[in-house]
Amino acid sequence: MGRRLEGKVALITGSTSGIGRATANLFASEEARVVVTGRRRDWGEMVVQEIQGAGGDAAYCQADLGTSQGVRNLVRFGMGVYGRLDILMNNAFANELGTAVELDEKDWDRSLAVMLKAPFIACQEAIPHMVRQGSGAIINVASVHGFLAGHRRLAYATAKAGLINMAKQLALDFGPSGIRANAICPGAIAVERSEQRYRDDPDLARRSAVVYPLRRVGRPIDVARAALYLASDESSFVTGTTIVVDGGMTCQLPDSLYGGFEEYFRQALAKEWGNKRDA
Ligand SMILES: NC(=O)c1ccc[n+]([C@@H]2O[C@H](COP(=O)([O-])OP(=O)(O)OC[C@H]3O[C@@H](n4cnc5c(N)ncnc54)[C@H](OP(=O)(O)O)[C@@H]3O)[C@@H](O)[C@H]2O)c1
After folding, report:
1. What is the Å distance from ligand 1's center to 115 Cα?
2. 93 C-alpha vs ligand 1 centroid, how far in Å?
3. pTM of the predicted structure, to 2 decimals
4. Is residue 73 part of a domain?
């Protein structure tokens, strides 16, 4: 338990599970008072109990970020309970898979409402309070999908790219008011949602790890620690930037994924030319 967020109030969307839950616990352990939120009341209350059980301070607000009013009520709840807002972490997501042809218009709207419009509305509500306070830290949780494409993830990739640039725009517009805005791009992180997949396929973690130079998938705490840095005064000269927390997945050329690609090329050449080495 440290004091890196002493006196600060943090609102973390999507904190009923996964990265948000880990961040809520970490921030509270650094003496932030935390607004925990998500639609699942039982999970939200459990996170609050975890925090209080460890001696921290948190309050749960049930909110559906698919509606603007839900987002506005959430920020107002935080202000009502704690009277200030220092850290806004836009972390919730709704991921409808599909290509531009497959994706239903309603699915697109739902995804973009939670991932892109909700952060905009949350900023619109929260920033005036931060301006009055003369400080604030906004953290948009984007993804490596914000700068690289994956299969059938049109809505997700579009929203995540938007969150990266939204942070830059916020940094520019509100830097003079003492507000910093940054993005975090996680790679694959094993969260509660992915537990079943790892249980059904015990080899999945090992296979997934191959694409990471650090040879493991991420943990929620890996992202939470990056968020703690961006939320704390230790990053007081850091704004408009993106921290990639992906175990090195996106720092490599695709050919390195073959792992010992010299062998791959040797085999490909042998297939092409057989033993006719001088051909
Ligand atoms: N895990 C990964 O591999 C990974 C990789 C890259 C980026 N990320 C990003 O990290 C962030 C957190 O993801 P996670 O993996 O930790 O996922 P998660 O455990 O499934 O958490 C998602 C959170 O979003 C909330 N949420 C979803 N729809 C909502 C809605 N309509 N209204 C209010 N809350 C809503 C959920 O709460 P309720 O269900 O209680 O409403 C939940 O707390 C996301 O932005 C995601 O894109 C994750």
Report:
1. 9
2. 4
3. 0.94
4. yes
